[in-house]
Amino acid sequence: MNCSHLGQALIHQARCRSFLSPPTHLALRRRFYVQTSVPLLQQQLLQSPQSATRADLEPASSLWPSRSSRASLVPPPKNTRHFPVRRYSQFTKMTLNNFTKKHKVTVIGSGNWGTTVAKLVAENCAEHPNTFEKDVQMWVYEENVTLPKDSKHFDASIGEQPQKLTHIINTYHENVKYLPGIPLPQNIVANPSLVDAVKDSSILIFNLPHEFIGNICRQIKDHIAPYARGISCIKGVSVTDDKIELICNYISENLNIYCGALSGANIASEIANEQWCETTIAYNTPVVDKRDENGRPVADGESNSNDVASGHSKELTPLPLDYPPLDHDEWALLFSRPYFTVSMVSDIVGVSLAGALKNIVAIACGYVEGHGWNMTAKTAVMRRGMQETIRFANEFFPGQIEPSTFWEESAGWGDMIVSCTSARNWRCSKLAVERNLPIEEVEKTELNGQKLQGISTTREVCSFLRAKGAEERYPVFMAVERIINQEIKVEEIPKLFK
Ligand SMILES: NC(=O)C1=CN([C@@H]2O[C@H](COP(=O)(O)OP(=O)(O)OC[C@H]3O[C@@H](n4cnc5c(N)ncnc54)[C@H](O)[C@@H]3O)[C@@H](O)[C@H]2O)C=CC1
Ligand SMILES: O=C(CO)COP(=O)(O)O
């Protein structure tokens, strides 16, 4: 029994025991399909992209069994037509090559994670020329960088003169400042002009510290394609007074485009070194972008304001039909690598909040460890931190999360564990206690320009909780703020958690 069969069997078994509601059941089937069948399909198309016919794709049925073998394996779910139709549309979308346009991709941000995501996306753009333009624009916040004498790129004729970071990336294909030692694909184009980098792009990937997103949106608002679609890889939230907004929703509303969210247990330097990991992408394809199996729009052409599927509150410009569609399959195609497994879901709120709030808990864990307490204390902080995260989501985004995001997805417990044991927020808060320094000092001396998201997220979330009078229900979050502000010591934590 291969992985896909096994997945279906498990889902069916769980459903028979009434563990899963029918929608969850369907969502899980879809997830298994994206994770297992799509890469195989891609591989087949890669081997023979021009000549592939539907018959060529039939071997994929070893992953997705034929109707008869499916029937013998597990009784079909209610909506059995769903996946065969999708499979055919995948074939149509990827092989007929009847789209006059391809998606142009821009990554906005070029830090540790920004550059890593640009790398994996650029690898996929080169591998899927029917769907994506080969070159990937990467906007770089320009700065001068001096290559040290022992750098392999050191040029004696230039000496130790500072050079533009964009020049270094485009010449040596390495981001020596934010992702040193990792060779980058040559189809990444480092661009210091934000407006030029986003011009005509149908896909915008936002990947920079969350505090800069307001300024970025203001600068690009009038320069992006109105039909562009986004994915935010940013971990943070936007808070003003007693209002809180997810970063992807902030982007959607301010640019009037639809934007999903990517988040997971992802340490950039490990992924850049192609060590395997998983991630979660949340995306609700807007109704105006949905197409039937013949590639025709499913929207009836009437007003598309308040797009129900995506939750977008304004009128969206549809993605033109001369572009390949942008649905879960295409996002999986853009982000999946052999070393980066993508799970597609619809829970924008759960994925975004899990990614933002775990940074507060990671700081708490670093403090606890720096104080000399070990795994048992850290586990207590993680458990309570996750409890507060889910409480926060239910209290301030009622009815908008899927609990399975926190329990089953990389964006949930996966990210919590990795962040509390090895990420930058954890590392710097641990050092802060060990050196008896404010965490901001450690950030400056240890990270060479990289930014901690946990400090500002803690302050923003705590100020929001105060505005809502909800501090008492969030003792972990509030304690972290007080330790950051050096108002209390780590040893006071257990008393506060009572
Ligand atoms: N590094 C990682 O392992 C992961 C990071 N993330 C998230 O990805 C997002 C981006 O983080 P990184 O790429 O790691 O960034 P980073 O912390 O490595 O680098 C900071 C970036 O901010 C840029 N910058 C500095 N001043 C700026 C300004 N005024 N305007 C615009 N940009 C400016 C710098 O040029 C640099 O590219 C964050 O929300 C982070 O939480 C998510 C998963 C993994
Ligand atoms: O989000 C991350 C891990 O999933 C990275 O966290 P840090 O920003 O603390 O390194």
In short:
The protein is 48% helix and 11% strand. The chain has 498 residues and is an alpha/beta fold. It has three domains: 3-83, no CATH class; 103-346, Rossmann fold, CATH 3.40.50; 350-497, N-(1-d-carboxylethyl)-l-norvaline Dehydrogenase, domain 2.
- How many distinct beta strands? 12
Helix coverage percent: 40-55%
User: Stretches where pLDDT falls below 50 for ≥5 residues?
Assistant: 1-92
Looking at the structure, the CATH topology of the largest domain is Rossmann fold
CATH homologous superfamily caption of the largest domain: NAD(P)-binding Rossmann-like Domain
Q: In the residues, how many domains can be counted? A: 3
| Strand coverage percent | 5-15%
How many alpha or pi helices? 21
- N- to C-terminal distance: 50 Å
Molecular shape? globular
Q: What would you call the quaternary organization?
A: single chain
Rg value = 23 Å
Broad structural category: alpha/beta
GO molecular function: glycerol-3-phosphate dehydrogenase (NAD+) activity; NAD binding; protein homodimerization activity
Biased composition (Low complexity): 59-73
GO biological process, one term: carbohydrate metabolic process
Protein name: Glycerol-3-phosphate dehydrogenase [NAD(+)]
What report would you give on this structure?
This protein is 48% helix and 11% strand. With 498 residues, it is an alpha/beta fold. It folds into 3 domains: 3-83, no CATH class; 103-346, NAD(P)-binding Rossmann-like Domain (Rossmann fold, 3-Layer(aba) Sandwich); 350-497, N-(1-d-carboxylethyl)-l-norvaline Dehydrogenase, domain 2. The strands form 3 sheets. The protein has an 8-stranded mixed sheet, sandwiched between helices. Helix 9 (213-220) links the parallel strand 6 and strand 7. Helix 17 packs across helix 18 (439-446) and helix 19 crosses helix 20 (475-484). The longest helix has 26 residues, at 22-47. 46% of the residues are buried. Mean pLDDT is 84; it is low at 1-92. It is an enzyme of class 1 (oxidoreductase). This is Glycerol-3-phosphate dehydrogenase [NAD(+)]. One of its GO terms (cellular component) is cytosol.
